[in-house]
Write a structure and sequence with these properties.
This protein has 328 residues and is an alpha/beta fold. Strands 1, 2, 3, 4, 5, 6, 7, 8, 9 and 10 form a ten-stranded parallel β-sheet that branches. The chain has a single domain (49-325), classed as Aldolase class I (TIM Barrel). The protein has helices at residues 4-14, 22-29, 33-47, 91-104, 123-135, 149-157, 171-177, 183-195, 212-223, 253-266, 283-292, 311-321; strands spanning 52-62, 108-113, 139-143, 162-164, 199-201, 204-206, 231-236, 271-274, 296-298, 324-325. It starts with a helix and ends with a strand. The longest helix is centred in the first third of the chain and has 15 residues, at 33-47. Bound molecules: S-adenosylmethionine, 6-(5-methyl-2-OXO-imidazolidin-4-yl)-hexanoic acid and iron/sulfur cluster (SF4). Residues 66, 68, 70, 73, 75-76, 114, 116, 145 line the site of iron/sulfur cluster.
Amino acid sequence: MTDAATLGPSLSACQSRGDWSRGEILDLFALSFNDLLFQAHQVHRRHWDANSVQLSTLLSVKTGGCGEDCGYCAQSARYRTGVEAEKPMARAAVRAAAEKAKAAGASRLCMSAAWRQLKDRDLPYLAGLIEEVKKLGLETCVTAGMVTKGQAEFLRDSGLDYYNHNIDTSPEYYGRIITTHGLGDRLATLNAVRAAGLKVCSGGIIGIGESRGDRAGMLEILANLAPQPESVPINSLVPVRGTPLEDEPPLDRLELARTIAVARLLMPRSYVRLSAGRLAMSDEAQALCFFAGANSIFYGEKLLTTGNPERGEDQALFDKLGLQAETP
Ligand code: SAM
Ligand code: DTB
Ligand code: SF4
């Protein structure tokens, strides 16, 4: 077990420094649980209102039929998951969903399309959606697979705030979960998004059979991006029937809280989102994650194809914990 007293002083000196090694990150994971959460919470308070949580609502604007083989995904056409390929959602329906999200208190709408990569012909469609959502005063996020810098610039000029593209796991484990594209492709898209001047939302997925070393490796890449992503979603696997990961057991919730705490220590100024998987988590597990530094959630009863807590349940949890939704 690493000694917290020796790590303490160095921690404050090296936040956001961009040259974290895997060994140093593993040392943080190895701290005693109390020491790790205390340090993460202190860093959290230094940079954020510890009782404020940002609410993003997800909307799947193009569901299913994706050619990629991501082993966790309900929307891959390679697995029989019961999710059928649908046509892109009409602009008016997206506006109605955005109005509902806003009325419920969300500050950002994340629009997802199950594509390997964005095609130029789909840009006007997405620009129309971004325009509708912006008009309501919501922040906009799109996740639609790989993009070029030119495409990212087009989206920026359409009013897009964030582009989401996750690195998902460590370089060593990536090929065990996805074979149809590589982590290098994902990093190239993140570079394009950053170069276009968009805000970057990038995180990963845990509970997919990876080791702690893989979780550290994922955070190592994210923390060493310069600048660091503004938003870091930590998804816990929602096992989907028909996918290769359907029988994966849930990751220990204390290890989830550790992962959130380490993300907070490495990326003090980023939103760390307690993302997919909350429906299967207790109030206590979520409370620990908020204490560890999570300050964003997906809000609304559906993620993309799977469930999420009802809005009323989240409100009740916020009331019990004295948390408030962040206003944009
Ligand atoms: N096609 C786009 C892409 O791959 O970037 C956007 C949608 S994809 C569903 C976005 C992210 O959702 C994935 O990178 C993964 O981290 C997360 N995700 C997908 N399926 C999940 C599942 N069953 N459980 C938890 N997270 C999941
Ligand atoms: C992210 O990191 N998680 C979201 C969003 N970005 C697109 C997706 C979660 C998907 C959960 C499984 C589903 O509902 O299909
Ligand atoms: Fe799912 Fe995105 Fe992978 Fe397609 S690229 S299978 S939508 S995670």
